[in-house]
């Protein structure tokens, strides 16, 4: 071999070595890339392939009324699916499933013959059927239990409960307000799988049980709620009204015993109901309360010390406030009238006289103290503040001081109104209305919600005086149809016009009555509101009889004896 | 030497297989228990719902109506004098008790006679309230309320 050919051979070797070296470098680079740079990602991919985790859906917490009756709970329904490529004999499989699912085998066979990766064969399958299918162990057929929200009482308390959507999220009412609590914690079951996807018993596995959401025990009483809904529905049908609301509260605690609104919907089939029915009118709809607001005005006048129940004024039938003429509902002048008479005969002129006497600053201070213009803090989703215009607001006019005194030009929710009246019944203490009394967790621990005093609104003496004045209104005034023989009742009616652009609706009214019983030892406060009644526009005619019937029912159900018996027993 | 090694290897093999088998059995049992737990959880929810359905308010009203039951039309509260109240309470309590001689009718007759004698003795002032073990009855002005539906 010549030196030239040796040199050439040497060069080739060098080139070859360089190529090898370069390839080695590339290889090393790739190894580093896969083993170091993308290590984590690949590990996760491998784990996904070998290790499968199934999420166990948690059971949403139940909702019970104060007697322990179930109002909402979760049950399980199965979803049946198939992976057609894993099915060895589609016809036989279809026949096996057909009997259990109650469907013709041909329709199932057609589904199983499809080329899709996975097909859903049936949804909403009852527990016993789903478990039977799962126990058959048909290759390529699976059954997943999925929780479903159920309301055994159907429409009862629908606005208050709300409902649960398809993604297990709560909407409206308690379901939305307590959604985070009710959800519970999902569990999981994991394990290593072989290449065919079957679980390896000897492999590594894990099991974390799902944690059930806590149970909510309400202050609501199912029987009172049922009674309120029955009376409301009957009244609305009889007077051809558009809708209505009834609230029953315990004034000493703020506990809501019933909260009914009409029209209702079945939360089990919420998707069939029009969306506007989901809104709870008791907390989300604002209306002008009319004369039912007068006790607030009189409370302010009495509490400031400007007047006493015996103070008189000259009722001329009209009064001008801020350039606007305010007249009594019957346009009559009553001459020398006491403050008590303002409530007994529901006199607009008297109310406006009181509000102008104490002045805007004090009047609106009391309106705010009673909780108007702010949410009551009830544990329900969707509560609104109402509308209270005060001096300084661009929309406020001097005449508002007069009209607001008898509940015109002011927007309140039924709950705000009943809560304000409950404060008078409760000796002047404004409570936070509430619905959830207890939260019971799966481990047995219990959180009890205590009644909360928001503030003192008026003195005890003022509250007592007002109570007596309102009682007089039931004995011989405009609220006389609310009277139940043998029982003392304090109540105030309100027939309110409905504001429309440019003025007030000439035809329709909203009839309200709100009051409590027994007047001297209140056990419950009731608000009845009827929207747009056809038979009569007056609260006395359409709302007061409902109040009376409901009060009678409550006296019996709560075991409240007539005053004579009660007072004799107490003494 | 070979025999010892063979026995040792066999022992290690046996130990390993036993452990592996035990682990597999336990894993299987755990899996079954977990499934059982989930199954019971679902069953419980179903049963709870079935009970609630049976206790449904409108169903109760409907069943009551079919049985001829209804809400009271009128509730009357009656005044009872102290003596009447004691007799009333005593009768209720005696009815709740099992018959002292195993003979129900005879037991009731005896109870009634006891109450009558007690009432007479009390009206004559020869016995004090509470002697009949009625849980302590009150003074003359005390009143019992009877819900007459």
Task: Characterize the structure shown.
Chain A is α+β, with helices and mostly antiparallel strands. In chain A, strands 2, 3, 4, 5, 10, 18 and 19 form a seven-stranded mixed β-sheet that branches. The model of chain A has no long low-confidence stretch (mean pLDDT 92). Chain A is elongated and about 140 Å long. Chain A has two domains: 72-147, Penicillin-binding protein 2a (Domain 2), CATH 3.90.1310.10; 222-570, 3-Layer(aba) Sandwich (Beta-lactamase). In chain A, strand 2 (63-64) and strand 3 (70-82) form a beta hairpin. Chain A is built from 20 helices and 23 strands. Chain B has 149 residues and is mainly alpha-helical. Chain B folds into two domains: 2-66; 72-149, no CATH class. Chain B has helices spanning 2-54, 57-66, 82-96, 104-124. The chains are: A alpha+beta (571), B mainly alpha (149). At the A-B interface, strand 3, helix 9, helix 19 and helix 20 of A face helix 1 and helix 2 of B.
């Amino acid at each position: 071999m010549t030196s030239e050919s040796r040199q050439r051979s040497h060069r080739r070797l060098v080139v070859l070595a360089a190529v090898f070296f370069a390839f080695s470098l590339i290889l090393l680079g790739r190894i580093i890339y896969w083993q170091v740079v993308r290590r984590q990602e690949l590990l996760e991919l491998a784990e996904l392939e070998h290790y499968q985790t199934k999420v166990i859906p948690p059971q949403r917490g139940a909702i019970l009324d104060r007697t322990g009756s179930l109002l909402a709970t979760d049950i399980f329904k199965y979803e049946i699916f198939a992976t057609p490529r894993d099915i060895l004999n589609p016809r036989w499989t279809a026949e096996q499933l057909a009997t259990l699912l109650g469907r013709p085998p041909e329709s199932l066979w057609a589904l199983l013959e499809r080329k899709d990766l996975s097909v859903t064969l049936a949804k909403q399958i009852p527990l016993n059927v789903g478990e039977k299918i799962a126990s058959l162990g048909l290759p390529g057929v699976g059954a997943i239990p999925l929780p479903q929200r159920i309301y055994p009482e159907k429409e009862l308390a629908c606005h208050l409960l709300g409902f649960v959507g398809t993604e297990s999220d709560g909407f409206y009412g308690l379901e939305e307000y307590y959604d985070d609590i009710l959800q519970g914690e999902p569990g999981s079951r994991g394990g290593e799988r072989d290449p065919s996807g079957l679980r390896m018993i000897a492999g590594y596995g894990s099991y974390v049980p799902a944690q059930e959401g806590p149970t909510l025990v309400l202050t609501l009483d199912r029987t009172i709620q049922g009674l309120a809904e029955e009376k409301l529905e009957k009244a609305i049908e009889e007077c051809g009204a558009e809708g209505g609301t009834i609230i029953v509260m315990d004034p000493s605690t703020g506990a809501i015993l019933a909260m009914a609104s009409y029209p209702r919907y079945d939360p089990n089939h919420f998707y069939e109901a029009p969306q506007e029915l989901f809104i709870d009118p008791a907390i989300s709809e604002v209306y002008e309360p009319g004369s039912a607001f007068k006790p607030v005005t009189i409370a302010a006048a009495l509490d400031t010390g400007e007047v006493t129940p015996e103070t008189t004024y000259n009722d001329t039938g009209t009064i001008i406030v801020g350039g606007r003429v305010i007249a009594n509902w019957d346009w009559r002048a009553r001459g020398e009238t006491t403050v008590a008479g303002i409530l007994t005969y529901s006199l607009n002129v008297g109310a406006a006289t009181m509000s102008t006497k104490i002045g805007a600053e004090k009047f609106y201070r009391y309106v705010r103290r009673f909780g108007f213009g702010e949410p009551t803090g009830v544990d329900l989703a969707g509560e609104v503040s109402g509308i209270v215009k005060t001096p300084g607001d661009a929309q406020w006019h001097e005449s508002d001081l007069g009209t607001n005194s008898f509940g015109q030009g002011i927007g309140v929710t039924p709950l705000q109104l009943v809560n304000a009246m409950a404060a008078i019944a409760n000796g002047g203490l404004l409570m936070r209305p509430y619905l959830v009394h207890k939260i019971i967790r799966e481990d047995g621990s219990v959180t009890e919600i205590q009644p909360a005093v928001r503030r003192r609104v008026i003195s005890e003496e003022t509250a007592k005086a007002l109570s007596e004045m309102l009682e007089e209104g039931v004995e011989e005034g405009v609220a006389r149809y609310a009277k139940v023989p043998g029982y003392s009742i304090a109540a105030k009616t309100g027939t309110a016009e409905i504001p429309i652009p440019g003025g007030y609706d000439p035809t329709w009214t909203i009839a309200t009555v709100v009051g409590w019983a027994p007047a001297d030892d209140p056990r419950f406060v009731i608000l009845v509101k009827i929207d747009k009644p056809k038979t009569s526009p007056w609260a006395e005619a359409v709302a007061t009889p409902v109040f009376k019937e409901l009060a009678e029912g409550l006296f019996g159900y709560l075991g409240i004896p007539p005053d004579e018996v009660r007072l004799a027993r107490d003494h | 030497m070979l025999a010892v090694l063979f026995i040792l290897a066999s022992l290690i093999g046996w130990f390993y297989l036993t452990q592996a088998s035990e682990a597999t059995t336990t894993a299987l049992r755990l899996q079954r228990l977990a499934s059982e737990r989930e199954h019971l959880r679902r069953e419980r929810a179903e049963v709870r719902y079935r009970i609630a359905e049976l206790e449904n308010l409108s169903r109760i009203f409907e069943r009551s109506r079919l049985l001829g039951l209804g809400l009271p039309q009128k509730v009357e509260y009656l005044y009872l004098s102290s003596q009447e109240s004691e007799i009333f309470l005593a009768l209720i309590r005696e009815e709740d008790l099992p018959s002292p001689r195993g003979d129900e009718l005879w037991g009731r007759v005896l109870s009634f006679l006891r109450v009558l004698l007690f009432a007479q003795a009390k009206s004559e002032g020869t016995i004090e309230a509470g002697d009949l073990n009625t849980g302590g009855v009150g003074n003359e002005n005390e009143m019992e309320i009877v819900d007459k539906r």
